[in-house]
Amino acid sequence: MSGTDLAVQDLNGDLHSLVEGVLDGNQLSLSRLISRIENGAPGYQDAVKVLHEHATGTRTIGITGQPGSGKSTLVDKLVDKLREQGLTVGVIAVDPSSPYSGGSVLGDRVRQTSRNEDPNVFFRSMSARGHVGGLAAATFDVVHAMDAFGKDVILIETVGAGQNEVEIVRAADTVCVVAIPGAGDDVQANKAGILEIADVFAVNKADLDGATATAQELQQMIRIGQDLERSDAGDPADDPDTWVPRVELTVATKGEGVDDLVDAFDDHYAFLEESGELAETRARRFEQEVRTHLGNELDHLADDVVEARRDLLTEDSSVDPYTTSEELVVPFRRAVEEYLRDD
Ligand SMILES: Nc1nc2c(ncn2[C@@H]2O[C@H](COP(=O)(O)OP(=O)(O)O)[C@@H](O)[C@H]2O)c(=O)[nH]1
Ligand SMILES: [Mg+2]
């Protein structure tokens, strides 16, 4: 397997100058290029290939949780904190509800405008609309673009409902689940799912009653989860190959607890690097991206075949769909076998 043979100057029309601009650190170019990715402009995949060559593997942090838990408020405070540390930041706010409500998109547009006044922060919201290759693929493409642009950290905010979003957030190096006081029952209800993806919990709105109790419930669940995973009786906290999810209390509106939250993110990242998990996480993300793109290509091939053979397919409606598709898949299968043999 080799990288792309494409160079910047090979790119289509304005993609050439946009990619050049992105590599030069021009925000307007980045913004326009992301629009090309979102709209599936001709040749955008080639642009992403070239960007990939310039990517350094920027650190990504996923922030997820139910609507209204305070994710956006928290992300804003996290950005301030990371900026204080001298880091440049990219923010991707994925909002699946936006085509219907429009409300949060308006809010995000305001955030986008005020945030993009700081040249070291790039904010972008993405709705579920469009995306020829799917929302997850488009989000990863935007991560590659922000990475090549030179961002040090990328925050990805999602509501965390639905397969697409889980796919997006799982691919982040560190996943932060934002819970709120009294959410114990909800958390309990889908504890397996949440326990599985969270590296860090932020119990936000800690100014409200019940925050400590919610944090304790989470701690207890983490404890049980870790015990179930381990057959020996040792303390998982002493095992360098095991990450014990952290629970931090935050009041996003006042910025309280944000320092500790960032410390927890840093500790998790250090764990990933030291344990070798980072390479595995990245490899999983890469595989996921390849699967997504491959799936899209195969969908297109299926369209082509069905289209080309339409007469044949409709000629005899007594043939069942399984037999028909098995017949059509024969050449694909043969090609795959041949490809794997050559390897
Ligand atoms: N009391 C309290 N309210 C908060 C806190 N953080 C956020 N909020 C409020 O909760 C509401 C939803 O916040 P938002 O960041 O938009 O939530 P998102 O939907 O998860 O992005 C807003 O009115 C915030 O001001 C907090 O720590 N305490
Ligand atoms: Mg939000």
Automatic annotation (TrEMBL):
Does the record bear Magnesium in its keywords?
A: no
**Xref: InterPro entries:** AAA+_ATPase, GTPase/Isobutyryl-CoA_mutase, GTPase_ArgK, P-loop_NTPase
AAA+ ATPase domain boundaries = 57-228
The record's keywords, sorted A to Z, are: Chaperone, GTP-binding, Hydrolase, Nucleotide-binding
Q: Which GO terms describe its molecular function?
A: GTP binding; GTPase activity
The UniProt entry's sequence similarity note says: Belongs to the SIMIBI class G3E GTPase family. ArgK/MeaB subfamily.
- Protein's recorded name: Methylmalonyl Co-A mutase-associated GTPase MeaB
Gene from which the chain derives: meaB
